Amino acid sequence: MPSKSAGIIAYRKRGSLEVLLVHPGGPFWRNKDLGAWSIPKGEYADEEDAEIAARREFAEELGLELTVPLTALGQVKQRGGKLVTAFAAELDIDTSSIRSNDFEMEWPPRSGKRQTFPEVDRAEWFALEKAHTRINAGQRPLLDRLAQLAGDE
User: Which of 2, 16, 4 is nearest to 143 (CA)?
Assistant: First the structure.
């Protein structure tokens, strides 16, 4: 059974539609850019509600509790098989104020040393066209759905 994630695309209109994407933290992602960005999301269990999971993951990755209504954008399947259920929320966030949870891993590999890294090392607003080049390819259809929803095709 493929793993499942739920997430939220925050968007704003500043002349044109902009979306908030996050860049994963840790040494594997340090020098990766195109195709490495994602919507704030995380895994959830079968018995958990996707919207509740999406709100929790947004808070964990950005340090912000969302209380605004969410609009369902449906589900996509990423290359590795992970199913991502997404929601949209219109809001504006100061990206300099984000505070992500940390995770710990052995680094360098087989060194016996444990290091702590942020789950998300940065968040940025991108115009829709630029977001298409930065986001994980499996999540691109979510941007198209958002554009239709927001009337910005």
Answer: 16
What global pTM score does this model have? Answer: 0.91
The amino acid that residue 99 corresponds to is: R
Within 10 angstroms of residue 80's Cβ, the number of other Cβ atoms is 9
Q: How far apart are CA 33 and CA 8, in angstroms?
A: 20
For 104-153, give the DSSP string.
EEESSTTS--EEEEESEEEEEEEEHHHHHHHB-GGGHHHHHHHHHHHT--
pLDDT digits (tens), the chain, 153 positions? 789 999 999 999 988 999 999 999 988 888 888 889 999 999 999 999 999 999 999 999 999 999 999 999 999 999 989 999 999 999 999 999 899 999 999 998 999 999 999 999 999 999 999 999 999 999 999 999 999 988 765
Between CA 83 and CA 4 the distance in angstroms is 5
Strands 41-43, 16-24: pairing kind: unpaired
Name which of 99, 104, 134 is nearest 116 in CA terms.
104
List C-alpha distances in Å: 57 to 1, 6, 101, 119: 21, 8, 10, 11
How many CB atoms within 10 Å of residue 22?
Answer: 24
